[in-house]
Amino acid sequence: MEKGEQGVMVAAQNSIAQLQARLKDLENGFRGWLAKQFLPVEAAVVTATSATQGAAIDCFLESSNVRGFDRLLDWARSPQTSC
């Protein structure tokens, strides 16, 4: 590798490491705050967080595999389908 390319790779690795460290700090701060809350607040926050995460995952999966999902629905709706 040339010096210029190596510098870009190091900068990219540093950026990723910085992002990971920042996200870890945010997660630790959130968990610390959550641990200080009363049980009903903690339950509500965990439920909302889980619902948001599930919606994001579903959105990603739905957008990445729309054609396959449509074929599955067509198969399920067809009158020839038997269990």
- Mean pLDDT, nearest integer? 79
User: Number of helical runs?
Assistant: 3
What ranges have pLDDT less than 50 throughout 5 or more consecutive residues? none
Helix content: over 70%
Give the number of DSSP strands: 0
The fraction of residues in strands falls at under 5%
**Cα-atom Rg, whole angstroms?**
22 Å
Summarize the biggest pleated sheet: none
Shape assignment: flat
N/C terminus separation: 60 Å
- Which structural category do the helix and sheet elements fall into? mainly alpha
Order of helices and strands: HHH
Task: Please tell me about this protein's structure.
The chain is mostly helical and 83 residues long. The chain is built from 3 helices and no strands. The protein has helices at residues 3-35, 39-64, 66-77. The longest helix has 33 residues, at 3-35. The radius of gyration is 22 Å and the shape is flat. It starts with a helix and ends in a 6-residue tail after the last helix. The mean pLDDT is 79.
Write a compact overview of the structure shown:
The protein has 83 residues and is mostly helical. It contains three helices and no strands.
Structural key phrases:
single chain; 83 residues; mainly alpha; 0% strand
